[in-house]
Write the structure tokens for this entry.
Amino acid sequence: MIPVSPRTQPGLVTETDRRFMAAAIALGRRNNGRAWPNPSVGAILVRKGPAGPVVVGRGTTAPGGRPHAEVIALGEAGAAARGATAYVTLEPCAHHGKTPPCSEALVREGVSRVVVGIEDPDPRVRGKGLDLLARHGITVVSGVLAREAERLHAGHIRRVLSGRPHVSLKLALSADGFIGRAGDGQVAISCPLSKAYAHTLRVENEAIMVGIGTVLADDPELTCRLPGLLERSPIRVIADADARTPPAAKIVTSARAIPTWIVVAPDAPESRVGPLMDAGCRIFVAERTALGRLDLSDLLFQLGREGITRVVSEGGATIARSLLEAGLADELHFVHSPKVVGDGGVPALAGLNVAAIERNPRFEVVEKRRLGDDTLVHLFAREIG
Ligand code: AOF
Ligand code: ZN
């Protein structure tokens, strides 16, 4: 966990501060899934008006990571930024990257107070942004809605601190604990609202990962099919040790439109890898575990090196179990349906106990709510990074 800044002093944070930070977090969330390799930061500039606070500028880190959120918000505010309070989900940067640092821009435009969610763990920043602001006489408060900001930036934090992306695991479970029926292709377990929820997860993540078993059983597209959001489909990552992905699979025939990355073991037959490459898939090679399965940790670190910060896995059961057992699942979206699968059901986590995982102290329940006919249990690892 990122330590909360000692700059946060009790009494300095008001309810209004928390409200605007919540709004900045919602704004930041908009570009999760497409700001990578950068975090999707939210920034709001607020001035005191005669009838209460007035928002004069808003920004979210742009797709691809630049411009940064603060620069967009400052541009929108223009001269109105002078004397304003800036609410920023992540500490403003202090480094000269492709653009000058945001903390300098906030000083230059005359912002008088900066309220931050969490400090940036990136070694180029890590407190330097807050120091620069403070040195210029700006009032700095850090740690406002820190847990929520940490969850927003879990991908960035995890990748910067440990080199791998943040991993979400989404599973739709029948009332009798199954995710499908063997040999039956896709069985409708979740309701339409839960399916829409699953597709928003695809938008908010940069990559979607499934095992080869799912490709062979379902021939899925793994795209985002919410209206207008197809272009925000994630990169499709297939864990496929033996390169069994059929060249006719939908994820292969559409690989030139939406990227497909297939991860194989070093001994995967070249005769099967070749046609996948020819169809436009990118091939990665990861080690096998002692059990002969693909080493998901190796796979994830490779994704981290590519700049991927957030991955969602929709199973199947084997990959879900492997992620949980290896401590690689950081966020869980368990959708419980009242439907019953009955005979021939495929156990959700290849034998792991779902109820025990929901009670595991490694996770905390951050949300539990109805999704149409279903119930969502949303858990998040207590330790991020
Ligand atoms: C901010 N505001 O909106 C974002 C920040 O490669 P660069 O120069 O764009 O820098 C990337 C780093 O900047 C990234 O690792 C993270 O530390 C920070 N991201 N900072 O002030 C923003 N996206
Ligand atoms: Zn910046």
Remarks:
- The CA atoms of residues 191 and 373 lie 6 Å apart.
- The longest helix spans residues 15-29.
- The chain is about 30% helix and 25% strand.
- The two ends are 6 Å apart (CA to CA).
